[in-house]
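Translate sequence into structure tokens.
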Amino acid sequence: MLMPKRTKWRKYQKGRNRGKSYRGNRIEFGEFAIKAIEAGRIDSRQIEAARVAMTRKVSRTGKTWIRVFPDKPLTKKPLETRMGKGKGGVEKWVMNIKPGRIIFEMAGVPEPLAREALSLACYKLPFKTKIISREDSYEIYWSSRERCSWITKATKREKVRVIYIKS
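Result follows.
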């Protein structure tokens, strides 16, 4: 199972998982990929189960890339334990997933077989996903290349939204 060799702290706070993924939202290595379309949290066991399902379907041909790594510890206190006595021990390692994040990529396999293998992996994940190809990767429900910034006009002190689109 995936887990970091060392971390800065033993236990983290839970935090919030809001917004869209502006990093890791394009296909970089393969031809086909699994993209998250809702927010969630992926466990190291779920990553391993999806990887095994994919590689068995394609009979270990082609190449797969895992684009996520669980580096956040989740703690849990034992059952029937009284309140207090500190935070529980580390139960599992997770990664927060935002909508738009690429989870797995695949190359070197024909398209029907790749889509079938990736769909088997999608069943193992705890959030909604979709299978995209390199051609579809720019046809997303929001443009991943669109970046917004706010500029305040010095004269009227009103905010104006400026959209930069890289081509």
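Note: Strands lie at 32-36, 40-43, 63-66, 72-76, 89-97, 102-107, 129-133, 146-152, 159-165.
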